[in-house]
Design a protein that fits this description.
mainly beta; Cathepsin D, subunit A, domain 1; 2 domains; seven-stranded mixed sheet; 7 strands
Amino acid sequence: MCFKCGEKWNPSHQCPPHISLHVLEEILDALDIVDNIEDQDSDGEETPQQEVLALQATSSPQQVARQTLKLLAQIGKHKVLILVDSGSVGTFVSEQLVQQLNLVTTACEPSTFRAADGGLMISDKKVHRLQWFIQGYQFVSDARVLPLKCYDLILGED
């Protein structure tokens, strides 16, 4: 059976342009919504429904897709992996890279940042005017120091 339309599946199967009524009934049964909706009370008047089910084929225009891009760059002669992340609130450099390259850090006001996995990380140092190179171009960024695991540098909205 096709998981989209419920019809018999074979290698040349194509779903019909409209969803069958039995597929919608199965969805409603699975969500247990049919049993929770009262049609009318004893007076024949309609009662307000408690739940609403909305199906939408495309994503909401208010949702902004997070864009990321991985780059290979250099700091001095050392190759670094950079994540360009449109959803990141700032630019961050990994503690490990700071130690490995003996980068000069300055103390800053401690701030807590939430990682993509939901974990919290505290930053109380930053590297001022960190120079990095990619394809012959030089860039300079102020970067907070964080215990990053997968990337050497994360470039955010700043």
